[in-house]
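wait is this the right file?? whatever heres the structure
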């Protein structure tokens, strides 16, 4: 069977931030990324400065506007620092763009933040040709299609190489496992259908509010996945509970739908989390009874439960195996974006066995913020 919409993998995620130089330093110091490329005034980029940050196969681009009337500046004013672009590698940008726009996708020119239109475009310099195009997805997020098969440069035209990756600096983050979007109440179904209709994504799992509500907050979630199984996009919407759903809190502070969290995979979560904690990354903690009940719930695992408890790593099991995961605190002042670190031992799910303990931990933080 041929994939109607072939995707080679994630290319990069672009964050729009208020101060890219300082954000680059944050991701380097705390999350152990390396700045591998840069564009700015010195490289002939007059309106935007960007830092490409890499670790394993993960590539983040941190961009800031150099003046206040640039669309990036307006977008940051509204959302705070946020994930603005999800970029996927495709074998043919023109085919990808025509395929999705013929099936109802809106090109990025309609983005309410005023992001420039991106029909199929060819960027060229002495390093070759870079093809890209983009469409608008939930909130102000744009989905970009990139083909860099004919490009040998460091990232894109105008970018110059910075430091090479130092062995031993990294924390073992390998790939983007999944990217979660929060959308408004009633909009989840629309976006599941959007990814299915335009790119042939299939529904992988869904959770209703009965499955994942706590005393106070509730949410519903559906996960869509591309034909290759590499691109997993869970989509959450708030549900009614006794208090304010954590998704509603996000929507209020992000001022609309957007990316809630990004999960990075690792081959050794104990080493990774130890390194990140030493670097100063703050993680959500669950109460100790969680670990007393753990073995009865998930059975035998390779890792020491004592060590997991010390680091605050959570475990869940499904039919195919088990997984280990942990979530950071929000990485900025608005309670919006956070990260997950995940190690899969066969399990292909998302840790639903941890939702209750996790959401209670999130609610304690929400209460501290006066938002429950
Ligand atoms: Fe996740």
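ok assuming it is, sequence goes like this
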């Amino acid at each position: 069977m041929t994939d109607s919409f072939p995707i080679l993998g994630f290319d990069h995620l672009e964050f729009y931030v208020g101060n890219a130089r300082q954000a680059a330093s944050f991701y380097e110091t705390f999350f152990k990324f390396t700045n591998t490329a840069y564009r700015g005034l010195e490289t002939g980029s007059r309106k935007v400065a960007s830092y490409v940050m890499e670790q394993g196969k993960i590539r983040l681009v941190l961009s800031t506007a150099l003046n206040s009337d640039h669309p990036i500046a307006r977008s940051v004013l509204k959302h705070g620092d946020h994930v603005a672009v999800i970029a996927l590698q495709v074998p043919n940008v023109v085919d990808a763009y025509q395929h999705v726009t013929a099936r109802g996708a809106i090109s990025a020119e309609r983005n309410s933040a005023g992001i420039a239109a991106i029909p199929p475009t060819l960027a060229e310099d002495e390093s070759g040709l870079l093809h890209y195009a983009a469409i608008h997805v939930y909130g102000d997020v744009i989905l970009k299609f990139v083909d860099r098969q004919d490009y040998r440069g460091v990232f894109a035209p105008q970018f110059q190489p910075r430091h090479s990756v130092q062995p031993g600096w990294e924390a073992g983050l390998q790939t983007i496992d999944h990217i979660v979007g929060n959308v408004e109440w009633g909009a989840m179904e629309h976006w599941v259908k959007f990814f299915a209709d335009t790119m042939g994504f299939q529904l992988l799992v869904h959770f209703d509010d009965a499955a994942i509500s706590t005393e106070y907050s509730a949410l519903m979630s559906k996960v869509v996945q591309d034909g290759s199984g590499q691109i997993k996009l869970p989509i959450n919407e708030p549900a009614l509970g006794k208090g304010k759903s954590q998704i509603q809190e996000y929507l209020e502070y992000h001022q609309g739908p957007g990316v809630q969290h990004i999960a990075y995979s690792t081959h050794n979560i104990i080493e990774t989390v130890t390194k990140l904690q030493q670097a100063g990354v703050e993680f959500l903690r669950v109460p100790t009874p969680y670990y007393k009940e753990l073995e009865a719930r998930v059975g035998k695992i390779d890792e020491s439960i004592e060590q997991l408890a010390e680091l605050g790593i959570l475990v869940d099991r499904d039919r195919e195996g088990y997984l280990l995961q942990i979530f950071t605190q929000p990485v900025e002042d608005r309670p919006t974006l956070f990260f997950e670190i995940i190690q899969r031992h066969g399990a292909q799910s998302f840790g639903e066995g941890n939702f209750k303990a996790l959401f209670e931990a999130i609610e304690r933080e929400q209460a501290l913020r006066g938002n429950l």
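The pocket of fe (ii) ion is lined by residues 178, 180, 261, 263, 340, 350 (CB under 6 Å). so i think its the right one actually
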